[in-house]
Design brief:
By secondary structure, the protein is an alpha/beta fold. The chain is built from 8 helices and 12 strands. Strand 3 (71-73) and strand 4 form a beta hairpin. Helix 3 (95-112) crosses helix 4 (139-150).
């Protein structure tokens, strides 16, 4: 069955996981391929983004890449539509959950960050939180403290999971995969008509929601075990290689 939509993570795939400059030549090549796919000028299926990054960051990338499908932000908590400039929470998110998340954020800011050198809060998110550290070994001590506080907040259930440099704090049940399934229902897409690209354990729910899944060489071992294709190249070079795979073409 022909693929009608490619869903890709950003950090560790389209961009380096590290805080460093992107390879401009590679990104230009990628942007041109995305633009041609969106306009129907190539056999490549159109691509959209599925990332933990906040909406303003995603909006810029969508404009650079000429992405027409809605994009998934904050690991499934927010869907953003460039054509209407509309951001919306996942349907399962309530006002009570958002208020509870704000209480957890205040706790982290007041109690956790001052006690852990180098641990930083990533600004700009509305329904998900991410903490950054160049030394992710600190996450092990932080996770139980956040869970313990969240348990005191009525109606709030969190899933806390580390990626390479980030500790992601999500509302339970809100995942990249659940957002992909929402988009699939809206656009009448079957699982077999979607392909996914990811690199960390947070992308397992992408794997579970698409018919074909690939990852760059820098992906974590557990994700490689469930991938249909593993590129021999890392990051964006790996994504460009993945886009050449026959499964990524619309026929």
């Amino acid at each position: 069955m022909s693929v009608r939509l490619i869903v890709s993570d950003v950090d560790g795939c389209i961009s380096p996981e590290e805080s460093c400059a992107w390879d401009g030549e590679l990104f230009h090549t990628f942007a041109e391929r995305c633009r041609r796919a969106s306009s129907g000028e190539s056999t490549l299926a159109p691509l959209t983004l599925c990332t933990g990054r906040p909406q303003p960051y995603v909006e810029v990338l969508m404009k650079l890449l000429d992405i027409c499908f809605p994009a998934i932000c904050e690991s499934g908590a927010v869907i953003y539509r460039l054509d209407s400039n509309l951001s919306s929470f996942a349907s399962s998110i309530t006002t009570e959950m958002i208020q509870g998340l704000h209480r957890v954020r205040d706790y982290i800011t007041a109690e956790i960050l001052p006690a852990v050198p180098g641990l930083l809060y990533q600004f700009g998110k509305e329904a998900q939180m991410s903490l950054f550290s160049e030394d992710p070994s600190c996450f092990a001590a932080v996770i139980p403290k956040i869970h313990a506080f969240a348990d005191t907040v009525p109606g709030l259930r969190l899933k806390i999971s580390p990626s390479q440099f980030y500790l992601n704090i999500d509302l339970e049940g809100v995942t990249k995969g659940s957002a992909i399934r929402t988009l699939a229902e809206e656009f009448g897409l079957r699982r077999e008509e979607m392909a996914g690209i990811g690199d960390t354990l947070g992308d397992l729910s992408i794997r579970e929601s698409v018919g074909f899944f690939a990852c760059p060489s820098n992906a974590v071992p557990a994700l490689k075990e469930v991938a249909d294709y593993i590129s021999p190249f890392p990051d964006l070079r790996g994504v460009l290689d993945i886009l050449d795979h026959p499964k990524m073409q619309r026929h």
